[in-house]
Amino acid sequence: xxxxxxxxxxxxxxxxxxxxxxxxxxxxxxxxxxxxxxxxxxxxxxxxxxxxxxxxxxxxxxxxxxxxxxxxxxxxxxxxxxxxxxxxxxxxxxxxxxxxxxxxxxxxxxxxxxxxxxxxxxxxxxxxxxxxxxxxxxxxxxxxxxxxxxxxxxxxxxxxxxxxxxxxxxxxxxxxxxxxxxxxxxxxxxxxxxxxxxxxxxxxxxxxxxxxxxxxxxxxxxxxxxxxxxxxxxxxxxxxxxxxxxxxxxxxxxxxxxxxxxxxxxxxxxxxxxxxxxxxxxxxxxxxxxxxxxxxxxxxxxx
Length: 303
Hints:
alpha+beta; 33% helix; disordered N terminus
């Protein structure tokens, strides 16, 4: 428990399941929902009767589900307690895969009262360390590099969290990494295929993976710097920064569930350590930088 926030009185705290229940239940829900089924376009555009919360040219979000159309024209639909259904026009299979495990995965998580972060993550000693930053800041490469140094790989780009009585539980999702050509040359991840819609980027896998839910212990905000440093973030700055780490936060905002949102914010602020990691991004010293980061993260666990 952090010492820079006071938890709410016991009488006002939400009742969340234990980690032993929260993690497996959330995994079960996500795995069923994301066992996506190909269908015809009419079925993929079938809306529900739920309250309409948000609509634009690409998304129709309702209280009990959503419709989503990718820029190329892949159609997805999801209703609570069901699977994702999608229609893929010829030649858009690669785009369908990208959006299925991106925007659609995040929206499914939000609708099931889970919290997706824009983060790659590793696990060590039963605790998850998540790295968040804008796209292109090296989250995936950092997590892949740490998987070579004794950490277990949890997820790439999106970390879904389930609230529990012990804190926020991170869920391994098993989806492949997405790495640029140069990143593949730095780490020992195995390329499985190229991403046709993103030239120079590839799907890849690593050998050292985490398969079980675990508590999120550290949330690390990445920045570029001249030297490797790991600085704690404390106090109200944690609450200011946390929304930046949320994945597709507008979907959660559209649901208008401010009380639940506040509960998750307080849980993060009181049970997760926040850090700023600065490190050089120069390729020639990649191994040395990764060794230094790995050691700092191990040292931080002792604090």
